[in-house]
Amino acid sequence: MKNPSIKIADRLSNLLYIRRGLLLGVLLAPPLLWFSIVYLGSLLSLLANSFFRLDDFTGQIVREVGLGNFIEIFSPTNLDVALRSTTMSIAVTAACIAIGFPIAYYMARHARGYQKALLYVAIMLPLWSSYVVRLYAWKLLLAKEGAISWVMQSLHAQWLLDGLLALPVLGGSSLSFSPMGTFIVFVYMWLPFMILPIQAAIERIPGSYLEASSDLGARPSQSFWQVVWPLAMPGVAAGSIFTFSLTLGDYIIPQVIGNSTLYIGQVVFRQQGVAGNLPFAAAFSLVPIVIIAVYLYLAKRKGAFDAL
Amino acid sequence: MVHAVSNVDLQVEAGEFFTLLGPSGSGKTTCLRMIGGFTLPTSGRIEIAGEDVSLQPPYARPINTVFQDYALFPHMTVLDNVAYGLMVRGVDRKTREAKANFLLETMQLPDAAQRKPAQLSGGQRQRVALARALINEPKVLLLDEPLGALDLKLREQMQSELKSLQRRLGITFIFVTHDQHEALSMSDRIGVFNKGRIEQIATPDALYHRPSTRFVAEFVGAANVLEGKDAQRFGHTGTVMIRPEQITMLFGDTNPSDQTSQTGAAHQAMGTVKEVQFFGSFWRTSVQCHEAGAHFLVDVPLQPGKAAPELGSMARLFWNANSIHTISPAVAQHKP
What we know:
The complex is a heterodimer. Chain A has helices at 4-18, 20-49, 68-73, 76-109, 113-128, 131-142, 147-154, 158-165, 179-203, 207-215, 220-249, 253-256, 264-273, 278-301, and strands at residues 53-54, 61-62. By secondary structure, chain A is an all-alpha fold. In chain A, strands 1-2 form a two-stranded antiparallel ribbon. Chain B is α/β, with parallel strands linked by helices. In chain B, helix 2 packs parallel to helix 4 and helix 3 packs across helix 4 (122-134). The chains are: A mainly alpha, B alpha/beta.
């Protein structure tokens, strides 16, 4: 008494066991298709679009290959936007590393049990709620009559806030209308994306490496710079790619908080949404890709991925 | 409060190869970590050459360690790993690399300098770890089960290399292992750990022939320990020990008295062979005694033309009075 369906299932599983490539192919085909069509396909179409141009008169896209869009990126206004965005991204990334590293280090090396779980929740919790809601919450906190201003007044430190806001490029009429405010909110928004990869990298460093370093005569600061930092570097690099590209691409935060100067994301958004100039938007969105490629290349040359 | 170790009183002589031997969880590694400075003692003192280092951090102690997992820095080359101890002390590149290269040559690893630790075999990594720990010329070298990850052949080779290296350098080695063969073959003296205490400190020879507790007798080598009534049945008092190779085993139906005179043995027992294990140069035989409930382990040497002891066969065991070691004259009190 044999059940034929079981027999077929047996033969199928046997076949898959013997021909391992088959199983691999079956499992990999859907994600590879998704990846190549949706990810790479859209990226390639973006690249292709960036060579076309918009006919100003008819508003139609002219499918002729040219470098006009790329030349336009280097116009003073656009260069200014790219430079401002890059500077902001570097500042946000640096601040996220400075704030995130100690937290990640503590989580990986010292926190145990419920303390660790609590820290995870605290870091992930903001990601569970809407980003726009949190953004507007920050607008209230940073406003002229907002909580931060009120606290500063109560501490008789209003002069400090006023002094900061009086700074030339960074200041503004209030925190919520200054690049400083934009910076604070960017750092807040992207911090979890910096902490988690660094924490994972530090967690992988065996405690015996630090003991060996100390044993060989290294002071704690030397152990940190010689052993922990280089081994945590892949995590820092991964985290900074997140914070860097998220800042470069964001068009909502600078629209809600800050003075009305533009960032790359906003320009791309306006060009394709309002002006309908898809080719130029495509060309401009290649700027972050190029900047990140350069950053990765430099990081690799500095040996950031040697520990991988 | 649970103490991992307590009341450990150890004095290691300069230039000595001292081994901390014990089962896992017996406190030997904790003891080593306290000497290295990775764990601070809650009470007591640690002195090196008369200087109290109990509360010094590891980097201030004239001690270096070979870690169980070697702990080689994966992002540095072998040369940088070995030179690390000099680098953090601010020695210039030329001097430290010259010394590191010299040590690598001593360790027979001259071609490995520019490789990363991941590209080395287990044995090579072990040598790099050793070279790295020696570059600061420590007064004491701590070795935490450094041979545990190696296969048997390599382990035996490294044992003799370590021993000759220690003799050549004259550095004090404190070696942690749970392997009694390793301890016996390498050490000048051994401290046997059990449940966070030291049971005995002695030379390998004394430890093997004159263990001071039942635990030591059974942990170091194989032992037949007789206690109380069992001991009395064979004419001994207190707790006594006989090593398996000290017992002669004869088979067949020859006259017992003939055999007694033949072997000159003062004590004997009758039993049945229950188990035989082949060890190369001898058979380790487990004999169930008829007179008492006791089991005896007997090592039967291989002799030409002599077959292996047969399971279930009757055996007669003989031993001399001078092969008996009295662990304690009265019945040993089991520690709670």
